Amino acid sequence: MTGTIDRVAGDSVRPITPLGILVEQLEAIVSEAKGSVSADLMTKLQAAYQLAAGLDPYVEACTTAESEDLAAIAARTRSERWSQHFSDGETVRQLEQEMLSGHVEGQALKMFVSMTRAKRILDIGMFTGYSALAMAEALPSDGYLLACEVDSYVASLAREMFDRSLHGSKIEIAIAPALETLRKLAEAGETFDFAFIDADKKRVCAVFSTAARLEFVDT
Ligand SMILES: C[S@@+](CC[C@H](N)C(=O)[O-])C[C@H]1O[C@@H](n2cnc3c(N)ncnc32)[C@H](O)[C@@H]1O
């Protein structure tokens, strides 16, 4: 979510959001422009860079802090060597730490769950479990979250993190392509109150229409 580059033991981090990419490009422009543009233009470029670079940290600072359990998932995700796991055949595709939704998105999801008073949630595309656990934290004690994930490596990593967390017992993981899981749920007449679709973006319309065939309860 942020343009800040955080070096840790795992793979290196690259900006992926439009804002993160803009910050990186402005940083390069400021550096290249040094000594070759007027002082006035340099001041304007630096102001543009500082404005863009300050936005994500400002939003982060204004957002409710994440729980220790969510911070542990984020730290574990950063420390994994995703490229190595893929080349060793441990993951079905190249996964990367940038896939994690993170602090601001996690707190926004928690807010939506609280606002809708959802009791049964679908998390489609779980990765290491950040969005699933963030939403589970806002569920009542008898709430239920089904997380759909196709990759067994991340599913077992997430299960390990959920089992150590305060709210992970509300989460069940379905390891299969999401469309398969959704079709089975629709056939079984399962109902849900809230869904977060964060996988299979190329087939998001099919995922959405299959999820929509599930009964979503009006609250
Ligand atoms: C962007 S990540 C999800 C991030 C997660 N929601 C979070 O907040 O941290 C997408 C995940 O979806 C999984 N995925 C991709 N295609 C899938 C499919 N067809 N069915 C289920 N999971 C899928 C990937 O393995 C990956 O772990």
- Could you tell me the CATH topology label of the largest domain: Rossmann fold
- Separation of the first and last Cα atoms: 30 Å
Helix content estimate: 40-55%
Number of strands: 6
- CATH superfamily annotation of the largest domain: Vaccinia Virus protein VP39
Overall description:
This protein is α/β, with parallel strands linked by helices and 219 residues long. It has two domains: 18-62; 68-216, Rossmann fold (3-Layer(aba) Sandwich), CATH 3.40.50. The chain contains nine helices and six strands, in the order αααααβαβαβαββαβ. The chain has helices at 18-33, 39-62, 68-79, 82-87, 103-116, 130-138, 152-163, 178-187, 204-213, and strands at 120-124, 144-149, 171-175, 191-192, 194-197, 215-216. The strands form two sheets. It has a four-stranded parallel β-sheet, with helices on both faces. A two-stranded parallel ribbon has the order 4-6. Helix 6 (130-138) links the parallel strand 1 (120-124) and strand 2. Helix 1 (18-33) packs antiparallel against helix 2 (39-62), helix 5 (103-116) runs parallel beside helix 6 and helix 8 (178-187) packs parallel to helix 9 (204-213). The longest helix has 24 residues, at 39-62. The chain is elongated. The two termini are 30 Å apart. Residues 1-8 have low confidence and may be disordered. The protein binds S-adenosylmethionine (SAM). The site of S-adenosylmethionine has 19 residues, from helix 6 and strand 2.
